[in-house]
């Protein structure tokens, strides 16, 4: 690489996204007091640019505008320019995205916002081309117009920004009105199911035509709806919708058939041509969802997909010390000598490449056939490429193929006169050879930032898959990651989580000079992970830490007046608003996850005020849950858990005993959305016995491992056989 001509102060940062911009000819500042003071001192507006390191259009805007010396000079002369990694600072991102969505009707990244020196927004947008185009104003023009307006009409801009801020405060106010109680679970669940059914794509699964996102929150809602309506036609329909969607996704190009894991989303209706970045939060949630699909259906297909995701994360997104990296980029160099990155270059194939890699004649096929012929037939490979030009506006994929399963194994086997076992081995061999060939290509950029929230989602993925698939190695990986969190993303002195840490030189773990404290989502997702990890490992330390973090979350984020949790803590003077997220999207919103966390916390501690808090969150979001629960499917799911009361499944037994393990395997093999699992090992000095005095009254029957099903700390008659226990869990 050539020596850079420019270096700005972002070179001092740890975020991979900010470091990507450290050699722009722009006087960039990170978000912080130094930039705010300069804006006030020089009375200049702030230009705020927000993105993330695997964002395709962020790369495009950088190449076109931020690397352009002339545009850089206009930016630095007229504005104080601030760069923010939205994954490091979701609080800053959310405040200004709320503004952009309210004023332009859309949003996304890169986000471009102009602020007064005291950080009030007055103009915003997303991506701008560098120069004016038909129907689209260019970035240079916008910069010059705003600079001129600031000189000529400053007072009008300031007045307008104040009005906008007041409107935003009003719009973003989520609180309990009067004496509202939690909405009826039955109505919320029914409405959410109807709304999802309306948007469901019966042919290809999913809940829109295009683009198509995995949305695990929708699928988890459908599983819970099925569990509560198993014997009804609606229940059967909900299950079919979820399983069909998961099958179509796994067959599609959004699933990386060669190197495992899932890409971010599909640009078309068929799950075929994806946006190629891979995000940790998708892998974590999808591992859980595919494990649940296996629990419910018993179909090994879903277990295999869960294992495939966890293989990808273990191999490509894992830090040696135990944490998980954030993402892999969509863009990469097609060859080692290429000058320009292309989207999907690491993942796509020409027919010629596949023929060259798989030339072997196949013994036993009905016609003279090579391994390449069979592979190309099964995965929809075409000589001229299989990507619809409409899905490839920059012609980056012309002549290329994105693998997609086009036939069932039975059809492919019949086509070539092979038995299923032989076909499976051939396809496996083909995938292996393509994987080896891909390893020679330049890899996409890896974002080695490690975030508490996303690590939490991934720990849940490993823990829940480990329990549901009876794979101890996954539980061990989850334990390793939780230990990493406790060491590197937790401050034992204050009892608070930290948001992020970074891979340093020689595989060390580094922290930024001023560490970023955890946000609400960090607490909610880590607490959820620790409950999942306790249930999978039965190590009580994780439970104890989860309850400590829940107390800290209450202290830092709870709104005692309007109820529910704010996304960020009080006392950050740089933030204009404290918001409450109100949409379960690519990730569930932290308030949604907190409802179930609070109910689980109450079960493990006996503290009933946590049940009350869960109800208060549901009451605060009551209007949205009753009218448009499709925007909050995870919270809609939590209303059912709240109203049906969690069942405590207590196994009394020796943790090492085979009979205890058999009972636990039985519990983990059943999908039940309103159960918590605990082991009463007879150690009355242990954490659980100290929290829950009722455990002391539960005994092993005839010296065998014994299960009790308890509700509100009152228990059923004891059972000692897994069959009886299964009957109790699936009434």
Automatic annotation (TrEMBL):
Domain Spermatogenesis-associated protein 20-like TRX: 7-168
Gene3D superfamilies referenced in this protein's UniProt entry, alphabetically: 1.50.10.10, Glutaredoxin
Domain of life assignment: Eukaryota
Gene Ontology BP terms: carbohydrate metabolic process
PANTHER family per record: SPERMATOGENESIS-ASSOCIATED PROTEIN 20 (PTHR42899)
Protein name listed in UniProt: SPT20 protein
Phylogenetic lineage: Eukaryota, Metazoa, Chordata, Craniata, Vertebrata
